[in-house]
Amino acid sequence: MMFLSQNDEICILTMRDKGLFNPNTLEQFNSVLDEIEKSESAKALLITGEDKNFSQGLDLEFLMTIENSDFLQFVENTMVMASRLLTFKVPVVSVINGHAFGLGAMIALASDYRVMREDRGYLCLPEVDLKMAFTPAMNALVVNKLSGRLRRDMMLAGRRVGGGEALAGGLMDACGAEDELLNLARELVTPAMGKDKATFSQIKRDLNRPIFSVVESGSGVRQS
Question: What is the CATH number of the domain that holds 59?
Fold first, then answer.
């Protein structure tokens, strides 16, 4: 499900098969982050998907088979994962090649930079249509990373936002054709590469403190 490759100093994490998250794939994602953190050569992380999907978010088909308390605990655990990106020791770029729904959109929001395909794919927070309120950790991430009408419409109406609108709304750093996205991401991330990792992580922690403090106060844990 989660495939890691490395091109020189840039690691690429590809979320396969719709990028759906269940306890198994969440642990795979965390394990890839562990591997990159241990690598001395890694200086940037690009996260992307395959085909028409970046990530469709939670694996609802599986999660609907477990107890509600376990479901809610899993959601908290996914936010612990997202918070790792907020303090990750190398710069993170979400390369949004297609649909980014729910947790997929939140991974994008938790990244330092975002590029998106201009002709296909949407960002969407479908919680309102799933009859699922945002947890405090989810709310902290979304509220601190989105603003204005874009935040209102995505949270209250579950509005799907394409690349052009996301760029105009300041959510994307760049948009382009599918075959341009990785190069756009590399151009964006280059100025932030090669920094002292401990310093870089601490600056990110301070920058994202309003989010990180809420995640830390919740019940989320690494293991699902």
Answer: 3.90.226.10
